[in-house]
Amino acid sequence: MAAYPISVHPLQSPAGSDIDFGAKIEDQQFATIRDALYRHHVIIFKNQHMLSPKAQYELTRRFDPASDNYGHGKTLDAKRSILHPDLKTIPHQPQVQVIGNGFIPSYEGLENVQLRHPHHRTFHRDHIPDDKDYDFTRFYRWHIDAALYDLYPPLVTTLMAVQVPKGRRQTLLYDDGSDETLDVPLGTTAFVSGERMFDLLSPEDQEFVRSSKIEYAPHPYIWMSPARALSTGLGLHSEGRELPDSELPPIDAKKIMIFPMAWKNPVTGKLALQIHPSAVRRIHCADGKVIDDLTRVRDIVYKLQRPAISPQYVYAHDWEEGDVVLFNNRGVLHSVVGAFKPDEVRLFRQCNLAASEPPQ
To answer: Could you confirm whether domain 44-352 is CATH 3.30.200.20?
Structure first.
């Protein structure tokens, strides 16, 4: 990405002072980028082939200068985490991850890497038949980029397309009895607006969302690892497959995350319904009651979120090499999509940083 243009303004001397030096540097372009991100939620820069991992990290950190650690912390090191197979850390810039599909002989200090694009077959309970796999696809898992234990959710995620296979499109199936489908580019990243998700609710549901909080499971990506997702990718089947606390890494009660259901946009003040549906465990209601029946918790969250993932509300980005996409991680949900052939190489870089403050 090109260097940001700056403006230089001489300091105004206080009354009675004869100081004739000093200037204030203002980065107008970043202010514009930040404003655009929070007003539009997903912003795209084209032809950024020269953006280095270091520059990507520095751009990401501009949104939260007090943050420095990768958004999932050390959870990628846990072999039982569902995230472990999907991301590779760049050795010289550990806040930046490599994701994609296919064999990469050498890239940014990584050697002989086999990337695996997440496929619904590994996470969903019910699968598209193998003989239709390259024609049809699913939302893999709707989510927010967040550890949801110990660390606060990142403000922003940056994604860069280094290598993109082209040529095919796929039909995305909801397979939930709605007959809804969506034509998507191969390997798209799908986004939906949390603000739209909130606005579609009835006044009663909006009040419930405004006044309720979600408690997330400890070590959620290990906890959920035996469970299986719904065909829409919007949460999990309740089959009692989640790991009990006794089979998780040590749990510190102070690190369990409880967040509002609705998160406020720092620029517009609008509310977004921001819930990671696969990691929910309990709902804390305004009257002090706690809903801890997992089946009921998931049913409530699903009914709140499902209207906003219908096709007319989904932005499916058609990636081109050199694209850098920034998205408001506290204002959208997103999902990996697509089924690649083994020789279709996809190479992306992802960066997000655990935030210095919780969502409000």
So the answer is: no
